[in-house]
Amino acid sequence: MKFFVVLNAKNLKQYSFILVMALCSALFLFLQNSLHTPVFSTEDGPKAVYKGEKNIAITFNIGWGDEKAGPILETLKRENIQSATFFLSGSWAERHPDLVTQIVKEGYEIGLLGYNYKDYSDLEDEEIIRDISKAQEVFTKMNVKNIELLRAPTGHFDKRLLKISERFGLTVVHWSVDSKDWTNPGVDQIVKNVTKKAHKGDIILLHASDAAKQTNKALPIILDELRQRNLTLVTVSEMISNSSAQSEEIQ
Q1: Residue 33: how many CB atoms within 10 A of its CB?
Q2: Residues 6+ apart with CB under 8 A from 179
Q3: Residues 41-53: pLDDT tens digits?
Q4: What are φ and ψ of residue 111, in 5° steps?
Q5: Rounded CA gap, 15 and 68, in Å?
Q6: Cα(60)–Cα(3) distance, rounded to whole angstroms?
Q7: What is the pLDDT of residue 246?
Q8: What are the backbone dihedrals phi and psi of residue 246, each rounded to the nearest 5 degrees, phi first?
Q9: Which member of 51, 61, 75, 169 has the greatest number of CB atoms within 10 A?
Q10: How crowded is the C-beta side of 1, counted as CA atoms within 13 Å?
Q11: 142 near 106, Cβ under 8 Å?
């Protein structure tokens, strides 16, 4: 009887050791995966990318306005920036075909920002579908091809948009660093909002709409700081293509 008790104790130790090793292996895989591109996703698979593994992506939203986009493009050209992603609303693009042409000519990437710049979380599915379809029609007429990215106009989205975007063959793109430039907190604060948080793999949100009055002055300082850190600017598509994805469910 005593031998039986000792034998079970040994087995218990063995099973405990196996369990601990299994937990360690699971933790290792989790930490390894955490280095991959974080995404929001549904259980079914559609994803919204907000961060990459390496390099850094600078993005500009343009929903409306006539004055700020041109100077932003001039600054990027003067700073010799060859990779940036512009998310454009269809209604703005219709009114500014010359600037859209300039964005394409400079080699920058274009993503959709819907058509009417409405909060998708407030719309019915069919309204979202119509808004995206109308935006696509605008860029098709302008001969802008291969648009594969979509950003929710106000940044608010849920799993409905992920599923709808999948039907369109579009990837929803969020951001990991918010400049808050549209609040016009001052050039120094915009720079701090970006440079204090920006690291390898981040997607930076800036605006080239007229509401963001201080972005263009902050932009050269931000770019200089990123250069000093040896961070290479890439488009969002380039960042996605060079990364594998980790899923995080979104409600």
Answers
A1: 13
A2: 190, 193, 194, 204, 205, 206, 207, 215, 218, 222
A3: 445 556 789 999 8
A4: -120, 160
A5: 66
A6: 73
A7: 36
A8: -115, 135
A9: 61
A10: 0
A11: no
Q: What is the 3-state secondary structure (H, E, C) of the chain?
A: CHHHHHHHHHHHHHHHHHHHHHHHHHHHHHHHHCCCEEEEECCCCCEEECECCCCEEEEEEECCCCCCHHHHHHHHHHCCCCCCEEEECHHHHHHCHHHHHHHHHCCCEEEECCCCCCCHHHCCHHHHHHHHHHHHHHHHHCCCCCCCEECCCCCCCCHHHHHHHHHHCCEEECCCEECCHHHCCCHHHHHHHHHCCCCCCEEEEEECCCCCCCHHHHHHHHHHHHHHCCCCECCHHHHHHCCCEEEEECC
Instruction: Report the candidate in 89, 86, 85, 84 with the shortest Cα–Cα distance to residue 63.
Output: 89
What pLDDT was estimated at residue 7?
Answer: 41
Q: What is the pLDDT of residues 205-225, one digit of tens each?
A: 999 999 999 999 999 999 999
Please name the residue that has the structure tokens 């700081």.
225
End-to-end CA distance of the chain: 56
- pLDDT score recorded for residue 130: 98
pLDDT of res. 47: 77
The amino acid at residue 215 is T
Which tokens go with 243?
């990364």
Alpha carbons 152 and 215: distance in angstroms, whole number: 21
Q: What is the dihedral of CA 40, 43, 45, 47, to 10 degrees?
A: -10
Low-confidence stretches of the chain (pLDDT < 70) are 1-46, 243-251
Q: Tokens in use for 209?
A: 């709409």
